[in-house]
Amino acid sequence: MDEMNDNELRILVEQRLRSDPTIDATGIDVVVESGFVNLNGHVETKDDRAWAEALIRQIPEVKDVFNYLSLERKGIVGDTNFNHNMI
Fold it and tell me: Taking CA atoms, which of 49, 54, 65, 83 is between 20 and 30 Å from 41?
């Protein structure tokens, strides 16, 4: 069996993320280099972050996963520490 190239693996990883009903993967960017997967971008919760990584680790062709996903809640823009009582 031929080894999967990085582009094929990237496509497989993206399909796996998009097809999973438990995570919104629209904010996730995937980069693959020599079988190593970088997950960049954002998700809503820590659980989503962990699940995205766990999901990709299940793919046998993935050598390792580097999870650089940050948390970003939908609808929250800017500084969430803003004090609205300040003049």
Answer: 83
Q: Are 11 and 33 in contact (CB under 8 A)?
A: no
* R_g of the chain, CA atoms, integer Å: 16
For 44, the domain range is: 6-71
Kindly report the number of other CB atoms within 10 A of residue 7's CB atom. 9
**pTM confidence score:** 0.80
- Cα–Cα dist 4/85, whole Å: 57
CATH number at residue 48: 3.30.1340.30
Q: Running along the chain, 87 residues long, what does each successive block of 10 average in pLDDT?
A: 86 98 95 98 96 98 97 64 48
Q: Number of folded domains in the chain?
A: 1
